[in-house]
Amino acid sequence: MTDGVDPLLDLPAAELAAAVRGGDVSAVEVTEAALRRIGARAGGHAFITTCPEHALRRAARRPTGPLAGVPLAVKDLFDTAGIRTTYGSSIFGDHVPSRTARVVRTLEAAGAIMVGKTNLHEFAWGVTSQNPHYGTVENPAHPGRVAGGSSGGTAAALADRLCTIGLGTDTGGSLRIPAACCEVVGYKPQFGSVSTHGTFPLAPSFDTAGPMARTVRDVALVQAVLEGRPLPVSARAGGRDLAHWLTGVRVGVLAPTGAEDELAELGATVEEVGFPGTSPGDAMAVFTAECAIIHMPWFPRLRDEYGADLQLKLDAAQHVSVVEHQRGLLALREMRERARTEPAVDVVISPTLAIEPPPVDCWEPDVRGPLTRYTRPFNFLGWPAIAIGNLQIAGRDEDTVLGVALALEKARSLG
Known about the structure:
Elements: H1 13-21, H2 27-40, E1 47-50, H3 52-59, E2 71-75, H4 102-109, E3 113-118, E4 130-131, E5 135-136, H5 152-159, E6 165-170, H6 176-182, E7 185-188, E8 208-213, H7 216-227, H8 232-236, E9 250-253, H9 260-265, E10 269-272, H10 280-294, H11 308-317, H12 322-338, E11 347-351, H13 364-372, H14 376-381, E12 385-388, E13 391-395, H15 398-413
Parallel strand pairs: 2-3, 2-6, 9-10, 9-11
Antiparallel strand pairs: 1-3, 4-5, 6-8, 7-8, 7-12, 11-13, 12-13
Helix pairs in contact: 2-3, 5-6, 10-11, 10-12
């Protein structure tokens, strides 16, 4: 045991679940180890609410399935029946839903054990997870730097070994930005491929739910469970060693990442590319207008109960005109149409972040642009995209994106 971490919490999800199913360790033992670790690291503000009774009760039922006994951290944007769900706000500080979000039910049905609800940027509209109501999420990988957002608590919980897998959302980079800041893995699925039922919306035209973990393999496993199908990449690889699967794969480079030579050595064709041309500024009007509409029941009536940066954003959102909104819809349609064939590659790669994780005392509106520069375009396009730390891989096809990520991870593990 190192730094108070039980060795069980270092195991990959598939290995841990196999040990639970085989009787080598009980789900209760694993859950107790996670809860002890969470209690010891409470000062990091990764969790808003823990649910030890719920977790231990489920663990005592001897779960089976592909995620049997695996500790799960759930972003506090997903409803959980009987367990406080705040959406990172003071307005919903005492809110206890009567239903559980579909994705949470799916993971629990596969044997996962939810140990708590993780901290986030207020109402998921922000990229730093500086939460004025529940504390700023600390970054275990880079102390003194923000954990990223809005799924910052889940990323920090993974980096600090408080859980094995996590669940977050992504509307402009909210899974991938914290994954990069905390040096874990976050996957934004294809828009619409994973249910957001029972999730507080930010901008419904872009909202996605997806997995986080410390490895691509664990993310792929959780995504397969969420979609209710076998691990797609294994079938796509045709039984071949994944480290050789990239032969003939075309990789477009949006900006240098340091992974170009690795991908070329694995057989990929690597070339520079650009985004499909259109106006991202116009498309942002759609995002901003939808945020304003979602908050109409509370803003501006309860303006003082919002944090300072949310007040600023929602004040501005009130002024998006109908013309700007319609122009944005046209820009999105054009971008998505052009992206069917442009760029003419299988995946594109870029850094996840355009800057280093900012210091914890930064003003979020100042860093929002560079932190979303490479992530937001794929919410506009609806493409799946994965962040492996500060490397982002995106493309039109989920199997291909995960396949390239898995191949690269495997090659790196082989040295």
